[in-house]
Amino acid sequence: MSSSHAADPTGWHGTTILSIRKGDMVVIAGDGQVTLGDTVIKASARKVRPLGNGSVIAGFAGATADAFTLF
What we know:
By secondary structure, the chain is mainly beta. The protein has one helix spanning 62-70; strands spanning 17-22, 25-30, 34-36, 39-42, 48-51, 56-59.
């Protein structure tokens, strides 16, 4: 474990993307924080995005989500 995550005893870190389905309805949501080590770079990133003219909704995490957010 790197020293930047030493304060976290579980070693867990990352993006949360959650999807819930009930019948023919679906909701998808994600956190909006981008970090570099212990520093918050952006607190309002969009990690859930429509694709294919809105026919697909996808959640992105890690470097891919960060790249979308920074452009």
